[in-house]
Amino acid sequence: MFEIKTASLALLMALLTLLGCGRQRTSVTNPEETFLPLTVLEGQQPEMYPFSDERCQASETSAPDKLNSVRLQLWHDGAIKDREIDLKPLRLSGASLNGPHISQVTVNSLFERQCDATKASPPECRDQRDHPAGWFVTERGQPLKICSADSTPPRKSLEHVGLAAAVAVEKSAQTLEDFIPEIRAIAPLEILAMPRFDTRWSPWFHNGDKGHYLTHVTENLAYFPESPATAPFIAVFPKSTRHQDGIYLWESEFVLAHEFAHHVERKLGMDRFGKQVSTIRLAASEAFADSLAFASQNATSETLKGIPCVGQDRDPSEWAFTNGVAKIIDQALLSRLGAASSQSTKDEHTNCQGVLPQSAHGIGTILAHWLHEFAKTTPVYDREPGRALAHLTVTWLDHLNRSLPEVEATPAVEVDLAARSLEVAVEKEFSQSGVDLTDNTRRMLCQKMTLAFPVLKDRAWFKRTDC
């Protein structure tokens, strides 16, 4: 009866303060990037979890300063597995579940927005002035506490969701700051565990009736930059009530690491927010997040492999999408840019939607795949694959951002700049390692580049013309 639809991602911030339903609403920016194209569940309430220890959440109840261990059910190597996690190295506190990179974990948050469904077809979320509609903070929620230094919360509890997300962020952050020391100085972010993001469409015409229609964001995670109303946060959205797969995205360390990487990108001044935006530029942001997430997992896919719908699509080590399309950028792919949907058709049996190759997320995973392929050729990869990939990724995006013009260029020009920046990053990794690029190595790298970007006709990669 209902179906998952892609919501429009407005990149503008609503700067007005509105009063509605007797509660003050303060504007908040829309998400800069999401792990999946943002999806909404129409008509049905999401699956919300209770506290496993309601008494612990009372304001007068104390929580330990340091958490010792927790047993969680997490996605690993294609299945949900019980894992005992030592929390002491992560330096997590039970009070508001905070740590070095997390200011707090918040539950029971509510964000709302009003949309005029008559403004576009298919409907896009716009207000009565035809401006993109942002979400407004209706309920700020409360900090989540953990009252036992050693705990095993039920899987379907807010404590499990909050701990799984916090553990993943802190683990990836500590790994990445070893590779990129600048991360140690960036401000922490907040985690919103199972927030409600509700959109009221009005007027909505359905089966001849005119009225309101309520939708809820589900099946996703998203990074929200700071705004006048909020600190930066990762929203860990709930599942839909009709999901059929056994994985919850917050149980994958890769997915949380991807969202934390967007925070790193933002705080290091390498993101596209507030700048000229295009599919290729957004794809570069997605590639950065996928690649750093993969680096934080030591360039292995155990926490991503086999996730229904998107595991193979987003895995940088996989050469093709789930639908068999090779992860290359050719003319046919560029000609499909700007398609109405960024997701493939939903599978009626699994309720799954994969990522279309021509979307920003799809091109991002293509770029992430080749970042990994070229990182494998660098001198330090065999010893430290995660470090090699992280260094190459940061160098690549930094050079690309400095190369892109202020105004949007054609997709072919921007792809060429992305490829040239990858060439520069690889050469820099060899130079910094004190290893010379031999003629055979240059030929091999040139052949890789030709395979990755067949849309580009220039074969003079890595100072060669005969590859």
Q: Summed up, what is this model?
A:
By secondary structure, the protein is of the alpha+beta class. Helices cover 29% and strands 19% of the residues.
User: Mean of residue pLDDT?
Assistant: 85
Residue share in helix: 25-40%
Strand line-up across the major sheet = 1-5-16-15-10-11-3-2
SS-based class: alpha+beta
The dominant shape is globular
Output the helix-strand order: EEEEEEEEEEEEEHEEEEEEHHHHHHHH
What layout of secondary structure does this protein have?
Elements: E1 4-6, E2 18-20, E3 23-27, E4 33-34, E5 39-42, E6 46-47, E7 69-76, E8 79-86, E9 102-107, E10 110-115, E11 136-139, E12 142-143, E13 150-151, H1 158-179, E14 189-193, E15 196-206, E16 209-217, E17 221-224, E18 233-236, E19 239-240, H2 253-267, H3 279-296, H4 311-314, H5 331-335, H6 360-375, H7 385-403, H8 411-433, H9 439-452
Parallel strand pairs: 7-13, 9-14, 10-15, 14-18
Antiparallel strand pairs: 1-5, 2-3, 3-11, 4-17, 5-16, 6-19, 7-8, 9-12, 10-11, 15-16, 17-18
Helix pairs in contact: 1-2, 1-3, 2-3, 3-6, 3-7, 3-8, 7-8
Give your account of this protein's structure.
The chain has helices at residues 158-179, 253-267, 279-296, 311-314, 331-335, 360-375, 385-403, 411-433, 439-452; strands at residues 4-6, 18-20, 23-27, 33-34, 39-42, 46-47, 69-76, 79-86, 102-107, 110-115, 136-139, 142-143, 150-151, 189-193, 196-206, 209-217, 221-224, 233-236, 239-240. It has 467 residues and is α+β, with helices and mostly antiparallel strands. It has two domains: 1-252, no CATH class; 274-467. Helix 1 crosses helix 3.
